[in-house]
Amino acid sequence: MATCGAVFGGSANAWAEPPASPPPDTRPVVVPTEWGPPQGNHLTASRYLKAHPGATPWGTNDFSCRPSARHPRPVILAHGTDATAYTDWGGIGPQLVTAGFCVFAPDYGGKPDATSYGTEDLWASSRQFGAFVDRVLSATGADKVDLVGFSQGANITRYYIDKLGGAPEVDQWIGLASPSYGGQMYGLVPLADAVPNLWNAYRQVTSLAAVQQAQGSPFMRELNAGGDTVPGVRYTTVGSRADEMIQPYTNIALTGPGARNIVLQDLCPIDLTGHFHMVYDPFVQQLLLTLLAPEQAPLPHCAYVPLGTGIGEVILGAHS
Fold first, then answer.
1. For residues 121-150, average pLDDT
2. In the chain, what's the furthest Cα-to-Cα distance?
3. CATH architecture, range 12-318
4. Domain limits of the chain?
5. What confidence tens digit (pLDDT) does each residue in 137-156 have?
6. Strand partners, 35
7. DSSP class per residue in 179-244
8. In this predicted model, which residue has the larger pLDDT, 191 or 274?
9. C-alpha–C-alpha distance, residues 186 and 274, integer Å
10. DSSP 3-state of 115
């Protein structure tokens, strides 16, 4: 099963790997350029991508785009674990382009022959993403960007801002289902701390990136050391009480100056979208537009979404 930005719980005392100082990885992000049609869920996006491996969400990664006075900052989208720009942003990306933003969405954290991304070392992925931000700023002439990360994408973009000196280049950071402090997956995964070599076995069936995001891992400890935010950047998390991967859901929230935390059900109690459906939930998509352009976007429309929506699409998409 694809982890789709999954985060798992555990304590810090069993961590023998990954190393605190991983070997340098200087490979750049992959920038897909074949515009694919807008998508309504992970399954249809995954099936389209299988037939069109170079697909990017419609209108994105157009380096001839120049920000307007109405939308002066390019928006860069960071996908989750074991995913791509197209599978995670096939719905949101075209909506932002239609609204007038210059939108970019790279594939990061992949092996050299990868067809899916977001599976490799998070320190390297953070550096990859930072270099891509510089490329976007240079191409568009903008002074700053807005970053939107889904699940793992929230972690690597926040690491870039907080730890790699990216704050002067970023005005706003938005984390959708952000695994800010990890989660314990209803208490199941902490067993890995009690069973010898279980973390290594788990890494073999998931990915290095999934293990590095476990609560208490070296990467997560470093990410949150010294405070959740740095001056000059506006931070917003959007989370769900029904998140299937981040439990308790309060682990999504950030603290510190500049931080705002939105719980989906506080705005729309009948929307029970969890982790996997977050980027394809219409209310969340509309909410993102209001966060990026509060004076221009219409108010989100609250509608019922059943518990567990999107889980099947992610599983089938991973094996289609």
1. 97
2. 57
3. 3-Layer(aba) Sandwich (3.40)
4. 12-318
5. 999 999 999 999 999 999 99
6. 56
7. -TT---GGGTGGGGGTSTTHHHHHHHHS-HHHHHTSTT-HHHHHHHTT-S--TT-EEEEEE-TT-S
8. 274
9. 14
10. coil
